[in-house]
Amino acid sequence: MPVNDQTNVRRLRAAARQIPARPEVAVDDLDRGRSAGRSRHSKSTQRKLRRLQVALVVCLCLLSIGTVATIMTLERRSDEREQLIFQVRKLERGLAEANTEIEQLRSDRDSLVAGRMPDLQPLSYDQILPVERAYVRNIAFTLTKQDESEAHEFRLVLSNEAEASVVPRLSISLFDANGAEIGMTEVSAAVLSQEGGQLALAPGEVRSHSGVIALQKERVPKYYQLQIY
């Protein structure tokens, strides 16, 4: 071998001896590292599970509280509704009893008025009320209104079935609910002459006569009385 080659070999060997040897990793150290890593991962997972469990418990508690509150609110509203229904039914029963009593009082009053003044007749507007007495066939009343004033008009149908002429002479009176007279008018020869109408009803003649009854008191008429003289 040439001298130069031998010199190079010696140098390479010397350099190789100067390079530090790579430490060998023990198997036990690797196992302990892997075990520590797995332990850290397990603890992290457990912490996450605990957080999830706590969150789940909190959600369940909130849901339970909300459900209980909703049920209590519904029950309270149901109780209030039942109380309102009870009050309404109680008022309805009271109103029905009051109406019954009012009707009874009206009936008693009408009976008293009719017993005291048997000639009074119930007053109805815009209806033909049959009379069929002497020369009066029927009568009708009409309530007219203009602005704030009211007028109580009447219309008589007169019929003479006799063989001789007849001069009408009668009166129409209005009464309130208590039987007090509140207005009156007459149909007579004097009235007919003032109105320019015919005085006498000829035999077989049918005629109508209209007029207005002025009220002396501001009350509502409930009865009327027709007197033929």
Mean pLDDT, to the nearest integer, reads 82
Order of helices and strands: HHEEEEEEHEE
Global morphology: rod-shaped
Task: List the quaternary state of the chains.
Answer: single chain
Share in β-strands: 15-25%
Strand arrangement in the largest pleated sheet: 1-8-5-6
Distance between the termini: 182 Å
Percentage of residues in helical conformation: 40-55%
Tally of separate helices: 3
Largest sheet: 4 strands, antiparallel
Tell me briefly what this model is.
This protein has three helices and eight strands.
Question: How is the secondary structure organized here?
Answer:
Blueprint: H1 3-18, H2 27-116, E1 121-122, E2 128-133, E3 136-146, E4 149-159, E5 170-175, E6 181-187, H3 189-194, E7 206-213, E8 223-228
Antiparallel strand pairs: 1-8, 2-3, 3-4, 4-7, 5-6, 5-8
Relevant terms:
229 residues; alpha+beta; 4-stranded antiparallel β-sheet; 8 strands; 49% helix
Can you tell me about this structure?
- This protein is of the alpha+beta class and about 230 residues long.
- About 50% of the residues lie in helices and about 25% in strands.
- The chain has helices spanning about 5-20, 25-115, 190-195, and strands at about 120, 130-135, 135-145, 150-160, 170-175, 180-185, 205-215, 225-229.
- The longest helix is centred in the N-terminal third of the chain and has 90 residues, at about 25-115.
- It is rod-shaped.
- The mean pLDDT is about 80.
